[in-house]
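Recall the central idea of this unit: under ordinary conditions, the amino acid sequence of a chain determines the structure it adopts. In this exercise we apply that idea directly, starting from the sequence alone.
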Amino acid sequence: MNITPIGYRLHISIFGRRNVGKSTLINAITNQKISIVSDKPGTTTDPVLKTMEILPIGPVAIIDTAGLDDSDSLGTLRKEKTYDIMKKTDFAIVVLSADEGITEFEKNLVKDLETRKISTIAVINKCDLHNVSQDMLNEYREELGIPVTKVSAITKDGIEELKVFISQNVDAYDKCQLNIVKDLIKPQDLIVLVTHIDCSAPKGRIILPQQQMIRDIIEANATAVVTQEKALGDTLTKLKEKPSLIITDSLVSDIVEDIIPADYKLTSFSILIARQKGNLEVFLQGLENIKTLKDGSRLLIVETCTHHRQPNDLGRAQIPNYIKELTQKELEFDWASGTYFPKDISRYDGIIHCGGCMVNRQEMQSRIKDSIQYNVPITNYGILITHAQGILERVLEPFPLISDRFKSA
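Accordingly, the structure predicted from this sequence is:
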């Protein structure tokens, strides 16, 4: 409960050719033996992830990857996994070997990362074997067009300086991502959170989106009041002032809407997380397209957390039922959970995605980009549910620009 979730850590990935010292570098940065180190090329097969803190950045996930210059059949599979890691990478470290210098491989790799809009630095490793002068560093920077530093991962010379170098080059967005709700409220505002606790709720704790919402509200110097839907009416009568905003679990948003006065602002946890990590406008357009599905259409339902399935599971039972009621069609469904997301989504007629609290924003944006590229409509659990409950227009009111466009559509 006290550990920053992986989806809210800055993802720093290490890329490069085989045997340039990527695994030795991650071991040196983390001061642990995370990756197997060997002189044999291609030792790293699957990506290796380690969570830690780098001050002043804070919580990060550092990922070691297989060499991208592996050309045999097994190497092709390794490279595919490495390219998958790029989809969730916020910040990239391209590792070069001091004795080999820059090749066309590194130049093309940097261009690829730039195309993906991933902040990138280069690290010249093995400086214990081959001296790299300041003039050489300047030449490397000019040739690659990105910040460059040098280390020896074996002797750990320059490792602490590298951590500072990373923090200096991380964008403001990479450090803190986007606000969940902080930008919608003011200091001293009163925010009511309506949590829903049923048989699928984790014992002894509240779910991740609710934890994150509380933290965001407190950081805004506002006050969070947490209650259940069955106690909401009594809670509101005890408050001395009108809440600035009510945030509810989507599953009980219709119940909440019936309880609160018409002039109270209302939205949902799922829609706020979708706004932070996804794209509300794309999701709203996706909803409109999904309404037009035909008999036999195939949908993909994506849930980024993994849990024991309950009889009335949200992703496996309730979401399909909402869609069937919405479309009145005989549809086919596939499911993806955890970190898995199909490489080929062209066979689907639509995607319904959870809020994505277990993945980082970069990965969610990559999935949205894929859906646009393959012309597959994508929407969000919260948007679908509140539409089915007939209150989507109301839960969008806290976002005037999007709400106005939605009304005029």
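The chain has three domains: 6-176, 182-272, 279-388.
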